[in-house]
Amino acid sequence: MNSNWLRTLRSLPAPTLQRNGICARATTVASRSPSIRWSTTATRKWSTPLAKSLAEAITTTGPISLAAYMRQCLTSPEGGYYTSRTEGRDQFGQKGDFITSPEISQIFGELLGIWVVAEWMAQGRKGHGVELIEVGPGRGTLMDDMLRSIRNFKPLASSIEAVYLVEASPSLREAQKKLLCGDAPMEETEIGFQSTSKYQNIPVFWCEDIRFVPKGTGKTPFIIAHEFFDALPIHAFESVAPSQESQIITSTATAPPRPSASKEPQWREFLVSPTPPASTHTTLSTPTSQRSSFDPPEFELTLSKASTPHSLYLPEISERYKALKARPGSVVEISPESLSYAEEFARRIGGDGRSRQSASGAALILDYGPASTVPINSLRGIRAHRSVSPFSSPGLVDLSADVDFVALAEAALNASPNVEVHGPAEQGYFLQAMGIQQRAEQLLKGVKKDDEEIKERIEGAWKRLVERGVGGMGRIYKAMAIIPLTEGKRRPVGFGGDVES
Fold this sequence. Notes:
By secondary structure, the chain is of the alpha+beta class. It has 18 helices and 19 strands.
């Protein structure tokens, strides 16, 4: 077993409550001996090498947090969903597992490029030091459409100093380079890799974390995060009624806990552990929609019977979570990495308040999640465009969870006193305000009269992006912007504002 697993997975004892895959109301189950439960990992057949590694690690250290499970499933070098180099595998598009907005219509990326142009104009048309930063750039389709759109605004295009793509996947990085830079060579740099864009020879840099993107005075960063935050790991907690005993889980080798009275509800963390051997969909209560084409999940969520370090800290960082603590049974999902990224966006735009840095740039976030409530029960798995258990076939299933937009806004505002947040607004409203229908009509004018298939494709694509019916992308997806503090003097385009000439 790779020793890295033992350093990254938290040591936690066996829990006593079981969950049925996605966060749902916990029910008590008969206790099972950990030595019996996990003793068969050596002979049990696992769906993927990553599943086997996860099971072996948990056998050694105990159940792991949901965040640790998600992180390994998505980015583990030992077969993570985004980091594996499986020949011919593509997560995006009709032949992949899911389709994103940029893959549906080029208009989506073009309008985001126009949004950057409009915000650049509103901030005084800076003539140098402009940076385009995209986190989680997929195959590069969105940035390609944005750059193609921006090149028509030559003053902005000539002021772009560099494009930075924050990407952890080697295979996706190669796809991005091919699309954005063509045959231009790629070289290693101190922060990652570098090539040259086919659009006006703008330098393109790749790095694995936004913290590697250079900072400096005089920079104007325009940051794009499309379907990025939904893939960041979450912790999940439930408030439980007061009990007569309380203990804190720190490792498997801690001394026996000392009894102490608890007079108020406490947070307990959901943990991940292997399912018992020979489990079935019925014994695991797998949702009916996830049973037909796939084997029973190999892992399950359980609720810790004692506090963990995460449960003592994370649900206490916001008054929103504290208000729910008093109601036993309340569930919250929290993504510390998401909060860190929102803070980083804000500081790059507005500084941290300790210097005289003038606020400049903006961030545009597009993702799915509730507009004002705390996400719950939102962990999901997608494979081949179908909903599957997030605890099956680790490394082959895309995992995601709803984004807590209010938490992102709070994190950004607390990180910098020189920024303000607009939104979240429904994607349908945002794209309509940006002129998606007018752009589609313009494209249709260039189509031959007898080419009905292309016309239907253009028409269907833009309408799909703004559809506000139940389950429609225009309703589920939200847009949120972080811009320099204006003290109410203006609103950005797409959020009630207009283009400033």
